[in-house]
Fold this protein.
Amino acid sequence: MIKLALIILGAILLTILIVWLIDKFIPTKVKPIITLALWALIAYLGFLTFDSVYGEIKFNKLKEKRYKAAIERLVDIRDAQLAHRTVTGKFTKSYDSLIKFIENGKFTLVERRDSSVLDVERTAAFGGVEMFKEIVIIDTIGFEPVKDRLFKNTNRYKDMMKVPLDKKGIEFTMNAGEIQDEKGNKIPVFEAFVKKTDILYDQDPNLVLKESQVQSVEGVNGDALRVGSMEEVKTLGNWPKTYGSNE
């Protein structure tokens, strides 16, 4: 877009030069018509220059606004999925089951305390001299509803699957499953994402294409806003911290 603006600016300067040459060398009778036409061309090229630069500024402002709104819901999805794994040991690929879990699931509250017990083997080895070993005792002291911890006083989790746009019907794609580590252990993973083309559905296609190819520490890399991964063990988002915490 900056390149286009420079090209237009060059055309404006060239047109101004032509106007000056006409003023210098063209006969007086023809001069007003040609000069007027060229000044109109200069005004049009100036408008294109302004529109190309300001258009990108407006695009970036709208993009950041929509990204932040979408990221808030991706964070809700991640928090709900992490709670689901904590309680059930796995992630889920279904929004319905995730919502039911939020409404009905409970965290187990535990208390850890240090204690010591007789070490029978060492006591026998030392001829009956009592030997003790340290242990950690974990007591269940109660339960806490998942909804109270994550979404107290709000029902926003019921809409977490919807990408917040004026255009209805766009949802975050969510998946879950398992991958194997180097030792063959199965580890639960999940991801949720929305394509940038869906978020920016009503914007200049050239700007959207450029945004979908971003690879920068200051931008959202790739063609989608994403949290988690189906290929590696991570629950991070792919957005920079200028949009909020991605952890």
In short: The mean pLDDT is 85. Residues 2-54 form one domain. The chain has seven helices and five strands.
